[in-house]
Amino acid sequence: MTYRTPNERRAQWLTIYQLSAVLLIAFVLVSLLDFVLLHALTTVNPDNGRVDRSFEGEDWYRLLRIIGFIGTWIVVSIALVLQDRDFKRAIPMILAPVLSGAAAELLKLVFSRERPVSDAIIQEGGYHFRFPFSGFIDGHNLGLPSSHAAVAFGGACMLGYFLPKLRPLLILLAIGCAYSRLMTGAHFASDVFLGAIIGWGIAKFFASGLPRPDRKFTL
Q: Would residue 21 count as lying in a domain?
């Protein structure tokens, strides 16, 4: 463990507080756009009032959504084992997206905020919250935060640490996954934003624990 002086520790905590404040403000600002983006990014059939999800069968949509599928990152982890002949990169590579998705699923049950769309119909009347922690009794149709976005960013940021030249492409794919969740009305923008922060934070945690010569994680 690296020794830090009291001043260094205070500076580190100050950085954490400042980053937390910035992310909180960003979450509030994104939340203000939730309903604007919901109506801008979803297409509603005027005849029956249902959200159009016909594109879910398209290859481009499947490609984006699968970035938020844990199985995708399991395959990546296996590829790293075959490449490295050890588990140095594979273990954090699988743990980052798995724990990101698990954290998002747990927080859904705690926050208990419903998805903007229920049975392909946009819910009226703003946000629909249940009692906090009531998701542990009934976890159906809860959306905050997005577990797909959490998995996508957890995996993309972790792999981006190991393969920094691919980082921009990986982040774009993760953003695409989050965007695909907005198009269907499955999530508000704030849902995917919080999911992305969870994925990024967990990946950064694992990256910070790797040997110092390998630390190139700057996201």
A: no
Q: Which residues on neighbouring strands pair with residue 121, listed in sequence order? A: 118
∠ Cα 45 145 128 (to 5°): 55
HEC sequence for 145-195: CCHHHHHHHHHHHHHHHHCHHHHHHHHHHHHHHHHHHHHCCCCCHHHHHHH
Q: What mean pLDDT, rounded, does the chain reach?
A: 91
Evaluate whether residue 11 is within a structural domain.
no
CA distance 195 to 47: 34
Position 3 scores a pLDDT of 61
Model confidence pLDDT, tens digit, residues 15-70: 889 999 999 999 999 999 999 999 999 999 888 889 999 999 999 999 999 999 99
Whole-number Å distance between alpha carbons of 5 and 1:
13
The rounded distance, in Å, linking the Cα atoms of 128 and 65 is 25
Instruction: Determine, yes or no, domain membership for 77.
Output: yes
- Contact call for residues 208 and 217 (beta carbons, < 8 A): yes
- Assign residue 78 the CATH number of its domain: 1.20.144
The tally of domains found in the chain comes to: 1
CB atoms closer than 10 angstroms to residue 52 = 14
Tens-place pLDDT, residues 101-149: 999 999 999 999 999 999 999 999 899 999 999 999 999 999 999 999 9
Evaluated on CA atoms 146, 151, 152, 158, the torsion sign reads positive
Domain span at residue 170 reads 33-214
User: Over 120-142, what HEC string results?
Assistant: CEECCCCCCECCCCHHHCCCCCE
